[in-house]
Amino acid sequence: MSGPILEVRGVSRHFTRHPTLAERILMAAGRASAPPVVRAVEGVDLAIERGEVLGLVGESGCGKSTLARVVTGILPPTAGEVRFEGRPAHQLRGRERLDYLLAVQMIFQDPFASLDPRMRVHRIVGEALSVHGLVPEAEVGAAVDRALADVGLDLAYRDRYPHQFSGGQRQRIGIARALAVKPRVMVCDEPVAALDVSIQAQVINLFLELRSRHQLTYLFVSHNLGLVRFLCDRVAIMYLGRIVETGPVAEIFASPAHPYTQALLEAIPRLHRRKRAFEPVQGELPSPLAPPPGCPFHPRCPAAVARCREERPELRSISTGRVAACHLLEKG
Ligand code: SF4
Question: Which residues are CB-neighbours of 24 under 8 A, at least 6 positions away?
């Protein structure tokens, strides 16, 4: 099948709370305004090619985890659409909808919170197979064993509970659960952020092995730029709910174009610069309740000009395979 395996077109995801009865009465009388809206994701376009590892990077609170949940179907978009293998995911029904939900699996940041503490490992890994009748009941046990072996877990542990494992082993259980249903895409939300550094390397290597063994496509959400550089083919930089730059990893790390990408890369601690002061991105991420007008990065941007405060830059091609949203990068 040609074309991207996953496409995000103009996707927004907003959160608001329902007004109380008293608030509704006050609103009807014109004495109160509607509850504020959190614009977690705003007008995102992304495409992930088959077999690709796309990194999604940004500061905490920029909307990357919300976008990951929209891509996997956990959250519906407020606007726009997610297309899986060319078909709009939100229009799929019945068996086709289930195929999409199984084909796009999510790996969560906190493996302990994502595993039912009352279930033994073989039930956790085999639950979706049984519930959806993906394999005959008599074959579920063998399928679970294959998934556990795939992630390097000793089959002797299959009857244990999640609390009897280390953090790295629990993440392997989460990966085995996803693998058991034969996904085509894995959406990994900070999958090693909660693990010890020594264990992180093992789990990252496992992701690489599984990619080639099962021809997997990854959307890899992380704030760890070193990890993204090592693991990903392309990277998308997100700021306050919007994508501000995308391109091949090697090119972005060699010559970041957007001022925010430049600031993020500048903030990576490096051994050869250890005598220089650590330079975090200046200022705070503005609230998604009230994003700044114009370019959302302008209150923190060292290159901002008057136009940046009034006009939001669109994502535009800046070279082959690269796009960025910055007035200073417009050609002509
Ligand atoms: Fe900075 Fe202006 Fe470019 Fe935004 S548009 S990143 S404020 S220079």
Answer: none
